[in-house]
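Can't paste images in this forum, so I'm doing it all in text. The chain is below; anyone willing to post the predicted structure tokens underneath?
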Amino acid sequence: MGHSSLRPLDDALRAMLAALSPVAGTESLPIGQALGRVLAEPIVSPMDVPPFDNSAMDGYALRSGDLAATDTLQLQGRALAGHPLGCEGAYGAACEAGHCVRIMTGAALPEGADSVVMQEETEADGNRVRFLVKAQPGQHVRRRGEDIAQGATVLAAGLRLTARELPLLASLGIATVTVRRRLKVALLSTGDELKPVGTPLAHGEIYDSNRYGVRAMLERLQVEVLDLGIIPDVPDALRAAFLRAQQEADALITSGGVSVGEADYTKQLLEELGEIDFWKLAIKPGKPFAFGHLGQTRFFGLPGNPVSALVTFDQLVRPALAVLAGESVRPPLRLAATAAEPLKKAPGRLDFQRGILESTASGLVVRSTGSQDSGVFSSLTRANCYIVLERERGRVEVGETVTVEPFGSLLL
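Text version of the structure:
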């Protein structure tokens, strides 16, 4: 088949994502159980953050105008974080003219004070404090609502919650969130040559490795996995597996059975039970790929080669599952780097070579992990990025600029 008949990756991805929509169903969870879940509703702040004017420094709160005619003020009291502020502990007392209040970082600014001078710019002598600098109104003061205003949308629906967002929710006093329900994804491998790990191999047989990689990535995505195991190239067994996935799962991911020369009855069964497009993609590794549906269950057919299966999952299935999960899809981070060694490449397909990206004094540098054959899985285990070589690009020489895509959380 000529390269002109292959489908570009971007075109296939757009077509696939346009055909998908989020599954129905939400649940309310305590924020301590919500890591990795997708917000079903935006988060609106119930309060101002900070909730009161407070000091950004350890020092002295004062009326800045008082230092216009003098450099020494009378110490009035202390304001400590978490304690009522005031004069010698008297709740609600204001900072009086000609006076200052010793204040700690995070403590509420006393009424009347408009500035904080850090302690390093002062000299204390008993109850008198000499200021070595003049004060500007508002200096070292964090204003109420400066970070987040009450009523502001702080997190959008479709965000997958990480360790960055959970403390923010806690700081707003939000104890529970509404999240999308977990996806249920069925997974199987096909092929008479595949055998489970832990059993001896006969001549011509190989161990089923793809399911372990795909399952690990699915678990990183917080989906519920229905592992149907290895299904032999037997029509009745395949039919039973497809029907079970159709009844129980939101999506089915298969490995093997979708490329030219593989069992035709696999394709016949898929087309009988649903609507499936068999694509030949202009990418390497991973040319054969299938997408469609079995009833309401979305179908993704990965190539059988180990590296091809993981690369196509990462580049195609991951964003598709994000849409099904109600997550906002973002393009992967891609950077420019310098090739540290020649890279073999023939024009015709977008190539996701596996590379080792390093930061040096002269910038980002990338080198290959070795053989890029789609059956050489060690090329992935040594890598920390893809070297993304454009479809019509040929051999890359040392010193040329290439595009790299650091591995995301699914492969790290």
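The CA atoms of residues 53 and 327 lie 36 Å apart. The helical segments are 9-18, 166-171, 210-220, 235-248, 264-273, 306-324, 378-381.
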